[in-house]
Design goal:
Two copies of one chain form a homodimer.
Chain A: H1 9-16, H2 20-28, H3 35-48, H4 54-61, E1 66-71, H5 77-92, E2 96-101, H6 106-118, E3 124-126, H7 132-141, E4 145-148, E5 160-163, H8 165-178, E6 184-189, H9 198-209, E7 219-222, H10 226-239, E8 245-248, H11 251-263, E9 273-277, E10 291-294, H12 297-309, E11 321-323, E12 326-328
Parallel strand pairs in A: 1-2, 1-3, 3-4, 4-5, 5-11, 6-7, 6-8, 8-9, 9-10
Antiparallel strand pairs in A: 10-12
Helix pairs in contact in A: 1-2, 1-3, 5-12, 6-7, 8-9, 10-11
Chain A binds a DNA duplex through α2 and α4.
Chain lengths: ~350, ~350
DNA sequence: CTGAAAGCGCTAACAT
DNA sequence: ATGTTAGCGCTTTCAG
C-alpha cells in the first residue's frame, strides 16, 4: 500500500496493454472498443483505482462540467429551496454545482463571479444583488447566465425565471380587503438594487383597483436583515395603532411582524391580521398558523438550471419565465367586523 | 465585438510582447517581474478580457482549488447553517465549494463522492449517510476527508467535527427532570446508519444517573422525514396520555411534536412540555417559544473546513473535535406541580 | 528579470 | 477496432 500518486490514463493503458486512446474511449463512451479489450481496460483501471481527471478532460473540451450558483444566503429558507432545485436539475443533467453566497454585497458577488469564470463553469445561475455593470462584463466572457427570482434593471436581455410576485401580492391584498381591511400596513424590502418594488407596486396598484386609498404612512421598507425588519415592523405597529392588517413582503418581514405583535400583546388575528409572502416552514408552526403566498422556490431553481443547460436555444426569448404563486390561507387573518380600539383587553 | 474565443495566456503574451512564462508569473504571483513588464501584461490582459483558466492551472498543479461538500439536504436549517460555515471558511482560504445533497441515499452519496474525486477536489467535507466501505475506498483515492456533525462507525480514523450531542441531551434531560418531569417521551432518529443513538443513549444514561426509571414505551425512533416524525410523535402522544414532557432529538421531531400537540388540543406547556435539539429559527416564533439545545452548526462547518484545508498536519489526532452546545430556555417547558389528568379542560 | 521548452491528463483527428 | 499524435492552457525548471 505504498503512497503512489494517483493513476493516469497512461498507467491504465500500460497495465492493460493498450493505447491511451482506447482507455479514453472506454471511459468517455465515445467510439467503439472490443468487448474483450474493454474488460481488460476496466480491470486494469479497477486495479489501479483509476479515476479520469476532469481537469485533463476539461482542458481539452473547454468545459468543466459544472455550473455556478450565486445566492445571497444559503441559510435563507427560500434560497435554500431554490438551491435544492438547481441541484436536482443539475444532477439529472450530469453537472455539478459550485455554490457561493454573496450576502448582498456587490463586490463579493463580482469576486465570486470572477472565480466561476476562472473555473470555466458551463454557466451561472444567480439571484443577483449587484451592479449591472459587473454582470454585463461577465456576460461577455462567461458562457451564459440565468437570473433566478430577481432581475437587474437594465439587463433585460439576461434570461430569467421569476415567481409571479405581483400576482402573489395582489391575491394577498384582495384577500385582506375582502375580509374588510382598509388600513393595511405594508412591510417591504428596501431596494437592495434588485427587483425594486414590484411587490410594493402591486400592493399600491391592487389597493387602487379596489378603491382603497393608500396611506403612505403605512408602507414602510426595511433592509433585508432581521434587525432592520424588526425595527420596521415595530415602528409601523407602534406608530399606527389603527392598522388592522399587516402584509409582509417576505418571510423575514413576516417573522418580524409576528414577533412585534407578540411583544405588543396584540392578538392575531383578533387585534391585527398578518399575512406574508413566502410560505416557509414555520408559517405552519406559529400560532396561529400564518396565511402566506407560496412562491415555488424549488421550481424556480430547477427551471433556471434547465434554461441554462438544456434550452440554450430557446433561452431569453419572450421575456422572463414567470411561475405562479399560490395563496395559502391559514388562521392569521380575520374578518373585520366592528371597529374596536386597540387598548389591550387581554 | 466579434465572437472570438476566450483569450489564453499565449494571446496575452503575444499582445504584451513577452513570453508566456512572464504572463504566468504575473498572474500566479510566483517569481518576480519588472514593474514595467507587469504593467504591460496587465494592460494586455485587460484589453483581451483574459482570465486564467483554472483547468490549465489545475492540470499542472494537480489541485482544482475547490473542495466538495456533501450534506443530506441543503434545505434543512441545520445543514444550511453548516454549509454557510464551510463557505465562509473556504472563502477566506481561497477555495470554492462544490455542494451536493445525498438525501440519505448511500448510492447517491457514493456517486457524488465519485464525481468529486474526478474533479480532483482538494478535499471533501461530509455529513455521511452511507456505507463505510465507500468512504474507506474514497479515502484511498481522495486527498482528504473530514466528517462533520456525524461519523461512520468503523471509520474512526477519519477526522471529524461534532457537536456535543450527548451533552446537549443531558442538559435537556436534567432541565426537564429538574422541573419535576418523570414520564418523558423521547423522539429519536432511527439509525440512518449514522451516529446511531448517541442522543438516545445520553437520554437513557442521564435518566439513569438521575434515578428516573426509563420507560421503554416512551422512547421511539423515526426516520428523518416529516411524515415519519409526525407519525412517531402522534403515536407517542396518543398512546401515552400520561407523558408530561417530550424531548425531541431534532428539529423535525420537534416540529412534529408541536403539530401533534396542537392537533390533540394539548396546551404547551400546561398539558405537555416540549423541548428539542437544534435551535432553529422557528423555535422562537412558535407559541410558546420552544426551549431547545443550540448546536453550533455554522461553527461545525467552519471548523471542518479549517481542519481539512489548514490543519492538515494536526488532523485526526486526539479524536473528533467536539463543539459545545447551549441550552436555550424559552417558554415551552413547565414545572410539574400536581398530577393532573389530561382530559381536555379547555 | 525573462524566455524557451517540457509536460500535467485527457480527447480527437488521423492512421492503420 | 485500436494505436499515434497533436495539442487544450498553464506552471516550472533551466538557461540566458
Amino acid at each position: 500500500m505504498a503512497e503512489r500518486r494517483t493513476a493516469t490514463i497512461k498507467d491504465v493503458a500500460a497495465a492493460a496493454g493498450v493505447g491511451i486512446a482506447t482507455v479514453s474511449r472506454v471511459f468517455s463512451g465515445t467510439g467503439s472498443v472490443g468487448a474483450a479489450t474493454r474488460e481488460r481496460v476496466l480491470a486494469a483501471a479497477r486495479e489501479l483505482d483509476y479515476r479520469p481527471s476532469a481537469l485533463g478532460r476539461g482542458l481539452k473540451t473547454r468545459r468543466s462540467g459544472g455550473i455556478g450558483l450565486i445566492v445571497p444566503d444559503v441559510t435563507d429558507p427560500f434560497c435554500a429551496e431554490l438551491v435544492a432545485g438547481v441541484l436536482a436539475c443539475a444532477r439529472t443533467l450530469g453537472e455539478h454545482v459550485i455554490v457561493d453566497a454573496a450576502h448582498g454585497d456587490p463586490a463579493r458577488e463580482a469576486e465570486i463571479l470572477d472565480r466561476l469564470v476562472e473555473q470555466r463553469v458551463d454557466g451561472v445561475i444567480a439571484l443577483p444583488a449587484g451592479r449591472a455593470a459587473d454582470w454585463r462584463a461577465a456576460a461577455r466572457v462567461c458562457s451564459s447566465v440565468v437570473f433566478a427570482d430577481r432581475v437587474l434593471p437594465g439587463l433585460e436581455e439576461v434570461p430569467s425565471v421569476l415567481a409571479d410576485d405581483a400576482g402573489g401580492v395582489r391575491s394577498l391584498v384582495e384577500y385582506l380587503v375582502g375580509l374588510g381591511h382598509r388600513r393595511i400596513g405594508f412591510l417591504g424590502a428596501a431596494a437592495a438594487g434588485a427587483a425594486p418594488g414590484v411587490r410594493e407596486r402591486a400592493f399600491r396598484d391592487t389597493l387602487g383597483q379596489l378603491r382603497v386609498p393608500v396611506d403612505e404612512d403605512l408602507v414602510v421598507a426595511a433592509r433585508p436583515a432581521r434587525d432592520a425588519a424588526y425595527a420596521a415592523a415595530a415602528g409601523l405597529l407602534q406608530r399606527r395603532a389603527d392598522v388592522t392588517a399587516v402584509l409582509a413582503a417576505g418571510h423575514l418581514l413576516g417573522e418580524a411582524a409576528v414577533l412585534v405583535a407578540r411583544e405588543l400583546d396584540l392578538r392575531v388575528p383578533a387585534d391585527v391580521s398578518i399575512a406574508m409572502v413566502d410560505d416557509v416552514a414555520w408559517a405552519e408552526l406559529c400560532d396561529p398558523p400564518l396565511t402566506a403566498v407560496a412562491r415555488p422556490a424549488r421550481d424556480i431553481g430547477y427551471r433556471a438550471c434547465e434554461l441554462l443547460l438544456r434550452d440554450r436555444a430557446r433561452r431569453g426569448r419572450g421575456g422572463p419565465v414567470v411561475l405562479p404563486t399560490e395563496l395559502v390561507v391559514r388562521g392569521s387573518c380575520g374578518a373585520l367586523r366592528a371597529a374596536r380600539p386597540r387598548p389591550g383587553v387581554r
